[in-house]
Amino acid sequence: MIWVDYIIIGIIALSALISLVRGFMREALSLMAWVLAFWVSWTFFRELAVYLESSITVPSVRFGVSFILLMIVTLVIGGLVNYLVGQLVEKTGLTGTDRMIGMFFGAARGALLVGIAVLLAGLTAMPADPWWHQSVLTSYFQDLAIWLRGLLPPDIADKFRYA
Prior knowledge:
Layout: H1 3-22, H2 24-51, H3 59-92, H4 95-121, H5 130-134, H6 138-149, H7 154-157
Membrane topology: Multi-pass membrane protein
Pfam families: Colicin_V
Subcellular location: Membrane
């Protein structure tokens, strides 16, 4: 094992540890809140921008501000829901189970993050470097990255190369 393997293990372990502390419900709700916030912002930023025309005259700034405002509001509401559900989990006495499942969720999230990082590395010359081939773990995550690349449109996927 070389330095990159230890970084990969560290990313997965840190993600698992964070999820162990927070628990599955909080992690899952947090992820859903971010996805929902992006969807709400992307879907409704133009509608909110209409109300900001008198305050912000530059359209690109107005659209950006409305997008960010919608993200913030949705994330705050998601945070409140997350807090309430977290309190409910504590009251029911399921915190041990919730945290254990959270740890597995966090490890899976960490592995996905590493897979995405390896996918993005395919845009660079890194996969041709000697350390890439000396690593014990990069080949496994390269397989994941190649699978993720298959989910992309062909004109974008063609830009990702692995030696």
